[in-house]
Design a protein that fits this description.
The chain is of the alpha+beta class. It has a domain at 3-58. The chain has two helices and three strands, in the order E-E-E-H-H. It has helices spanning 41-58, 74-91, and strands at 3-10, 21-27, 32-38. The chain has a three-stranded antiparallel beta sheet with strand order 1-2-3, with helices on one face. The longest helix is centred in the middle third of the chain and has 18 residues, at 41-58. The protein is rod-shaped and about 90 Å long. The mean pLDDT is 83.
Length: 92
């Protein structure tokens, strides 16, 4: 699941903008997305939350599947291998 890790005020990327700029970091266990936007902290948080919702819909967390253990009929396998060995012995 993606989540908002950091939101902090930063120096403006556009010196002529006259607006407050923020840096935000969205991440999951493998990826980090860093963005810069002008606006209030509330606006940036709302923007990041929308991005997170979209990312989590598009890339849902993968559920780890556990496989059922395979049950082997040892008796059946031993009969097959025994028959194979007998067949080889007859050929020689």
């Amino acid at each position: 699941m993606y989540k908002l890790d950091v939101i902090e005020m930063t120096s403006p990327l556009d010196a002529n903008s006259g607006k407050t700029w923020f840096r935000y970091v969205i991440s999951n266990n493998k990826n980090f997305i860093t963005g810069y936007r002008p606006g209030s902290e509330r606006e940036i948080r709302r923007f990041a939350d929308n991005c997170i919702a979209t990312l989590n819909r598009k890339y849902p967390p993968v559920k780890i599947r556990t496989l059922n253990p395979v049950r082997v009929n040892v008796n059946y396998l031993s009969q097959i291998t025994h028959g194979m060995h007998q067949g080889r012995m007859k050929e020689t």
